[in-house]
Amino acid sequence: MIDLPDLTAVKAALRKQRIETPSWAYANSGTRFKVFPQAGVPRTPEEKIADAATVHRFTGAAPSVALHIPWDRVDDFAALTGFAKDLGIGIGAINTNVFQDEDYKLGSVTNPDAAVRRKATDHLLEAVSIMDATGSRDLKLWFSDGINYPGQDDLRDRQDRMAAALREAYDRLGDGQRLLLEYKLFEPAFYATDIPDWGTSYAHCLELGEKATVCIDTGHHAPGTNIEFIVAFLLRAGKLGAFDFNSRFYADDDLMAGAADPFQLFRIMYEIVRGDALDPAYGINFMLDQCHNIEAKIPAIIRSVMNVQEATAKALLVDRDALRAAQRDGEVLEANAIVMDAYNTDVRPLLAELRTEAGLDPDPIAAYHRSGYQEKIVAERADGTQAGWGA
Ligand code: LRH
Ligand code: MN
Ligand code: MN
């Protein structure tokens, strides 16, 4: 048991915490083996936004929704933004998609064919135009580009092509807009991915300039990777821009954040707290990037938001003065005990209290189930759409 510190600062930090949800998590998804459709799943970007607004209504902590283009393409993005605003949320990061077109078989921006590279780069530029219309701050780039066999293409030329495309996109950014560069170890490329790790992303971001920062998707590493080390390193360098939270047991499983390894999520959030980077004013976009293949989607997303909040609350409870003293004195066991005491604290009553103070139900999932929203969408929506991959 630990003595709870003055909770005023902890509560103030938690009250400000913001988590962005992904439009695609509300849609049907699956594995390459089977998509199990669910009743009531959104059919349009508007319906995805309505579901995201519902998550915000019950959690009070998810006031923006990330879009994925072309999955969420509409004729009038300004109107879509107005629609979201009327429901109480904003449009967050604009995610590009240069991985689902026949032309991209050998890569998008790193393709050996200049015409294909042009097409892919134009998509990145189009995404910035969409940001202009939605008022989004973040252009989020993930490239599936890579090769399957040694010799298939020139590794170094592909880096040159990547750098050229990133430069064009970066130079198109307006004031207040940023580029978030996501990395992923493998899949769909199996031999070499063009941006496989945080170091490669970081190096490209450094070359691009201060508006470019790294996005850490927690499911995109080799097993055993120490993600909190990456967080600490990038924060120190001022180059951490965003997270795609999810959890995994094996590869890019996209399970609910904090489900597979809540201790890892706590360790990550501790580095965020340690780096004074939790406040939205610091600028990190804490997003979810998940698929709910077999579980009900909206409650799963609410659960994920709550899991991130719980990990954060525990991170805020670490007695940092005592920890520093123990570290300075070389008190290895004591230092570890201070961290573990915070992790082992049950923060659920604290978060319930915060919700009540904010006029929310202390149990957002129960409140959602009672609200009738699920029954309403099941009745109103026939044949929900698929997120766009996994078929
Ligand atoms: C790639 C990824 C990336 C995509 C999303 C759908 O695995 O994490 O963020 O945009 O999945
Ligand atoms: Mn991701
Ligand atoms: Mn992923």
Summary, kept brief:
This protein is of the alpha/beta class. 45% of the residues lie in helices and 11% in strands.
Description:
The chain has a single domain, classed as Divalent-metal-dependent TIM barrel enzymes (TIM Barrel). The protein is about 45% helix and about 10% strand. An eight-stranded parallel beta sheet has the order 1-2-3-4-6-8-9-10. A two-stranded antiparallel sheet has the order 5-7. Strand 1, helix 2 and strand 2 form a beta-alpha-beta unit. It starts with 6 loop residues before the first helix and ends in an 11-residue tail after the last helix. Helix 4 (about 115-135) packs parallel to helix 5 (about 155-170). It is an alpha/beta fold and about 400 residues long. It is globular and about 65 Å long. The protein has 14 helices and ten strands. Bound molecules: 6-deoxy-beta-L-fructofuranose (LRH) and manganese (II) ion (2 copies). One manganese (II) ion (MN) binds near residues 217 and 289. One of its GO terms (biological process) is rhamnose catabolic process. Pfam families: RhaA.
Overall average residue pLDDT: 97
Strand content: 5-15%
Helix content, binned percent: 40-55%
What kind of sheet is the major sheet? 8 strands, parallel
Q: What is the helix/strand order?
A: HEHEHEHEEHEEHEHEHEHHHHHH
**Helical stretch count?**
14
What is the structural class? alpha/beta
Pfam families: RhaA (PF06134)
Keywords: Cytoplasm, Isomerase, Manganese, Metal-binding, Rhamnose metabolism
InterPro entries: L-rhamnose_isomerase, Rhamnose_iso-rel, Rhamnose_isomerase, Xyl_isomerase-like_sf
Protein name: L-rhamnose isomerase
